[in-house]
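Incident review: delayed structure delivery

Summary: a single-chain prediction request sat in the queue longer than the usual turnaround. Root cause was a stuck worker, restarted by the on-call engineer. No data loss occurred. The affected request and its eventual output are reproduced below so the record is complete for anyone auditing the incident later.

Affected input:
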Amino acid sequence: MSMPLGRAALFALLASAPAIAWAQPPEAVRVAVLDHPIARGDVLALADFTEDQRPAAQARMALPPRDCAGLEARRALPSGSIVMASDLMPQQLVRRGEPVMIRVVSGGLTISASGRALASGAKGEMVRVVTNTTSRTLDGIVDGTGSVRIVAP
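Output delivered after worker restart:
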């Protein structure tokens, strides 16, 4: 049967124990951080990054600059921040409420009309649009800046 330790015995035991690993300062590693603030919706480029020393735990989720180039900021990012996958999204070529060119394609026939996007989308994503002339709502695929393609059967 063990006896409970008194305060003095417990203090002596803790004082003689080796240093605990988590009490050590974290190891610093070089990681890419933003050189300047990035606004929501801005497209990132390699020139937006610089290197800095950060704790390894923070650097674990960082994306390399080459993986960030060409992607759009999902939110405002302050200068010196580490960029993670959750901070970015594919570049939005069509934005909700903005005018778009709607192209209906059927075989070799193409019909174009102006319209308005009801949702934002990146290249290859499905978006809903409405035509200006007939107010008809259509689903299409983003195929360029301000351009949506409707594939007719």
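Verification: Residues 9 and 77 are 52 Å apart (CA to CA).
Action items: add queue-age alerting; document worker restart procedure.
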